[in-house]
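input
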Amino acid sequence: MEIILKPTNADNVQQIIDDMLSKNVTTGKKIGMFMKGEQEDGDLTKTLIERTKALGFTIHEMQEFMNQVNKVKIAPEITNIKIAANFTDWSFKKVIKEVEDCIEGDIQIKHKKIAGNIERMLDNPDKLGPWMQKNGVKDSQLLEYTLPVLVQSGDNITCNKFNSECDDNKIGSEVVYINVCSKYTDMQAMASRTLLFNPTKAQKEAYLLAFDAQQHLVSKLKAGTSLDTVYGSTLEFIKSRNATLAGKVHVNFGFGIGSKYKEEELTISAANSKTKVEPGMVFHVRITFKDVEQPKSKGPVAIGDTVLVTEDGAEFLTSGIPRKYQQISYTLDDDEDKEESSEEEDRPTNGHKSTRGATEEMAVLPTRTRGENKPTKNKQFEEELKHGQEKLLDKKLTELQDRYEKGDIQMHSKKQK
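output
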C-alpha cells in the first residue's frame, strides 16, 4: 500500500487525481473506496469520484469488505487488545476506589468530577508510570479513553448508550453504573459493571443471573456457532431461571470490539445468523436487565467484559475487574444503626473497618477521552507510530491476501436501486 500526499501548494486537484489513477492503476477498472454512504465530505472527495467515473472506472464500496476482514484479529492486534484490556482493568479499579471513598466517607461529589479524576491520570506520569512499565508501554500518547469514562447513579442511568457523558448530579448510594472503554494504539477493550448498595433480594437475584448468563454465553462462543444461536441459547438460559427478567434484557448481548468500540458485524443478537464464531474474534459480552426494582434509581443491573475467542474456547481479557456478586454489593450502615450497635460499627469490611462497606457476604470492590490540553506529539514519536502502523498494516494485508486466495473472504455485489 502506498500513501500519496497532495502537495500543499498544488491547486490542480483534478490533474493530481488523473496522474494518480494513470500511474497506479495499471490493470482492471475497479476502484475500492470508502464512500460514507451517498455523502461527499468535501471538494476533494467530489472531484475524486467525478474523475474516477470520467476515466471509465467503477467504484466499489469497501466498508462492508473491510468489516469482514476486521472480524478476525491477527496476532499483533490481539496483543494490543490485551494491553488495552489491562489498561481498562487498571482504570476501572481506580473508578471503583473513587466511588467507594465517596460513599464510605459520605462525600457529595459529582459524577463528572469522579470521571475527570480518572481521565486526568493519562497526564500524570507518577500515577500512570508504574502501570506503563509493568505492561511495556513506552509512551502514554498510545493510550486513551475512546469513550468518556462513564459514572452514573440515580434516575439517569443509561446502560446501553455508550456515547453518554457523566452529568453534574452527585453520586448516589443505591446503584452506580460504570463503563470504561480504553484504547492502546489501534485496538480497544471495554468493561461495564453496576455496583449495588444495600441491594434487595430482587437485585441480588438479577445480578447473580446476569453473571451466570454471561458465563453461559461465553461458553457458547465456539468456532462454527452462529451468533444468533449464541444469543438464543443465552436467552433460553435466562428464561429457564427467571421468565420475568428474560423480558427485561437488551436487544443484544454484546458485539465485536477492536479497531472500533462497536463492530456491528459481530453483534450477538437474534438477527445475526450470517456470522459464525471464529478463533481470533474479540467481543464485548454484556448482560443487562432494566427495571429490576423500584424506584428507577435501583432498576438497572449490568455486567460486561471483553472476551477473546481462541482455538480452545474463549477467555476473559478483563477478568481482573471484580465480577462476583460478593465483590460488587455493599451494605451501608446509617447513623442510627451505628449508635444502636457498636458491634455493627466495628464489623470488618474487606480488610478494613468501616461503617460503610461490604459485609462478609458482600465484599467491597476495589479516561478519559483526550482533552483539549493534550500534549503535542513530537516528530520522532509520529515517525515511530507511523512505522509501527505500517508494519501492522503490511501483516494485515498479507493475511488478507492469503485468506482471499483461499476463498475465506468474498466480495458480494449489492443490487442497484
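quick obs: The first helix runs from residue 13 to 24.
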